[in-house]
Amino acid sequence: MKAMFLRAACSFVVLFGAVQCQAGIWPDQIGKFQRKPVQTLAVGDQALLHEFGFEATEQAEYSDGASKFTATAWRLNDSTGALAMFEFRRPPGAKPAPVTKLAVTTDDGVLLAFGNYVLQFTGHSPTIPEMNYIIQELPRLEQSSLPVLMTYLPPGGLIPNSERYVVGPVSLQRTDPRISPSLVAFHLGAEGQFGKYHVADPNGVPGSGHDLELAIFSYPTPSMARERTEEFRKLPGAMVKRTGSLVALILSPPNADAAERLLAKVNHQISLTIHETPNETKAKGFLGMVGNAAIFSFVMMGFCVVVGIFLGGLTVLRRRFGKKDAEQAMITLGLDGK
Fold first, then answer.
1. According to the model, what pLDDT value does residue 123 have?
2. What is the pLDDT of residue 279?
3. pTM higher than 0.85, yes or no?
4. How far apart are CA 322 and CA 63, in angstroms?
5. How many Å apart are CA 31 and CA 129, to the nearest integer?
6. Smallest Cα–Cα separation from 87: which of 104, 73, 99, 74?
7. Structure confidence by residue, pLDDT tens digits, 271-321
């Protein structure tokens, strides 16, 4: 009962400048590995994690007797915060891993993001069945879509693992302190995606070229982006391009032509979804009503014709057999001789 209570409770204690949390995240068993008692994990960069929407963390050691590994989990508010934390923690030499969409292999294991979680395995690479089981057991899992902004970085020349997703002043300062938070205006709902590029020498000299850092900021509306573009252009040495609700920026590029070519690859793709307007809905409803009335009228006319033919045929048969109804008697006036 005590163990269940400890796994269900998450307490934050500020101790020597570090936040500690026991969150009840990891299951008792992963495949053949059994979990040992959960360890309290000290969180490092509190300001950055707070900006990412940090909620809880937990570290556990698993063992099957012959081998063991360490599993660390961080839970964020949403998938955007998990993406940002994943990109900040991803080491430069990491290689893509086929575990999830956001997963890399490191020198000693695997780092991945799934939903609102960032998971790190040290000393072990989880199999697909193990990951499926872990994902099913994650408490308070949130699986909203990843931000579209991350897809606008041009792939050609992008230095692997150089991407950084920026959601506020702290992550911006960690990424590029030359850009002030007030200039980006995060209070307007802005977010940013950074990436570093290696541009080959135009003369084809091996081992030469230039490195550029591209920043793309998204805003809720194109008008906001247009207003911010004019402010970004005031930065010394800034090359700025606006496309839709995005603002692309390269600061002090060593090669202006290479920067222009890179900026030209950033284009905002507008996805249109057709919805019925209220007037269209009313018009279609009226036309449907008229159509239904016409169909009903034709049905009733057909019914009347069929009934008329039936009654007429019945009358002819009765007369043929010499039967005449009382109401069929006719009164003649005898006016022929008048």
1. 94
2. 54
3. no
4. 105
5. 8
6. 104
7. 544 444 455 555 556 667 777 877 877 778 877 777 778 777 777 777 777
* Token pair of 255 as six digits: 């090669």
Residue of 134, 100, 107 whose CA lies nearest to 122: 107
Give the number of other CB atoms < 10 A from CB of residue 196.
Answer: 17
Strand 238-243 with 41-43, pairing: unpaired
The whole-number pLDDT of residue 150 equals 96
Sequence-separated contacts (24+) of 169-173 with Cβ below 8 Å: 169/51, 170/47, 170/48, 170/50, 170/51, 171/48, 171/51, 171/52, 171/84, 171/88
Question: What's the number of CA atoms in the CB half-sphere (13 Å) around residue 260?
Answer: 3
pLDDT at 99: 86
Q: Which residues of the chain have pLDDT under 50?
A: 1-22, 272-277
Q: How far is the C-alpha of 247 from the C-alpha of 242, rounded, in Å? A: 4
DSSP annotation string for 145-197: PPPGGGGGS--TTBPTT--EEE-SHHHHHHH-TTS-HHHHTGGGT-EEEEEEE
Q: Tokens 């793309």 map to which residue?
A: 216
For position 15, what pLDDT does the model report?
35
Beta strands 246-251 and 13-15, pairing class:
unpaired
Measure the CA–CA gap between 125 and 96, rounded to whole angstroms.
13
Is-contact 225 242, C-beta < 8 A? Answer: yes
DSSP state of 217: E
Q: In what order do the strands lie in the sheet with 117-122?
A: 29-30, 33-35, 54-63, 68-76, 117-122, 109-114, 102-105, 95-96
Residue with tokens 């086929």: 98
